[in-house]
Write the structure tokens for this entry.
Amino acid sequence: MRRVLVTGSAGFIGYYLCEALLAQGDAVLGYDALTDYYDVALKRARLARLARHNNFQAVEALLEDEAALNAACEAFQPEVIVHLAGQPGVRYSIDHPRTYINANIIGSFNILEIARRHQVQHCLMASTSSVYGAGRDMPYNERQKCDTPMSLYAATKKASEALGHSQAHIFDIPVTMFRFFTVYGPWGRPDMAPIKFSKAIMEGRAIEVYNHGDLYRDFTYVEDLVEGIRLLIDCPPQRPARAEEIADDDSLSPVAPFRVVNIGNSTQVYLMDFIAAMERHLGVEAKKTYLPMQPGDVPATWADCRLLERLTGYRPRTDLDTGVARFVDWYRSYYDTA
Ligand SMILES: NC(=O)c1ccc[n+]([C@@H]2O[C@H](COP(=O)([O-])OP(=O)(O)OC[C@H]3O[C@@H](n4cnc5c(N)ncnc54)[C@H](O)[C@@H]3O)[C@@H](O)[C@H]2O)c1
């Protein structure tokens, strides 16, 4: 039975990944501090579902708490790490910058130390499409330059990519960094558009539509994303013998067992179309307040996922209507708004 450390197990994506790994017979140690960035009851409800599995154990502690992290891993002896814990959100990073430095930089460094100490087979860590920053060359591919983060959130994720590369190189740890694109689905995050919009729509309040609706996002359905992660676990990067051996479409480092992989849906969705799908499934037309662009935000994202497909044979493809329908069903039952 493979032993996998999943950080962020009480979080949106971490919860789904734990379910998928437990279903295939892995033993999972979930590590999460249940921070109060959003409703802790939702995090507890996700963990309660995971606790039904015999092969799941949970530790509630901060990534920055080296002693707690070391003790948990000494006992569990992880063979693979999927590091999803972190402080997300572009807008929150404007007023709470240090939370991002602590969770995303110090926290990721501590995880890389665990990977080194336990010589894990593969350490996979979450980055974000926000690292493409001011880049306008779309769809974004992993090989393009992205040195223009537009928020501290993006900067800390870019920094964690750099930490991953250096430790992969020096200590020979296979490291894969995922770049996720706007993830949505049941059990989602209350700070993200689907829950914020649903709450406002059901309460008859206006939804806030940024950049006057002129926004495009590569919305990725959570189960598609997690299937991509699950398959990538079995594709650890190998240090290339010669840089010339690296395929043109591969983001593999020329010197280290390190690779960056986009996981998106590969479709640009107009925000107003996303809102229309929500209105259709909620059966209510939204009142809308049109606002300018939020500081730190980008007008569009769009993923090139050909590398994911080449490595794993898989390409996320749940269409928007199906994904929104599943989200709305869950929203109604969880928040009891039927
Ligand atoms: N959801 C998206 O659309 C999206 C897009 C791009 C990148 N990401 C990245 O994917 C990862 C998972 O995102 P998510 O949507 O599941 O977020 P989430 O907030 O639901 O989950 C993150 C979990 O990490 C935990 N956590 C936060 N800081 C911690 C700390 N210092 N120590 C221990 N635990 C801590 C939280 O309690 C939470 O349960 C994050 O790294 C995020 O930045 C998410």
Notes: The pocket of nicotinamide-adenine-dinucleotide is lined by residues 8, 10-14, 32-35, 43, 62-64, 84-88, 103, 107, 126, 128, 180, 182-183, 189 (CB under 6 Å). The chain has one domain: 3-334. The chain has a mean pLDDT of 96.
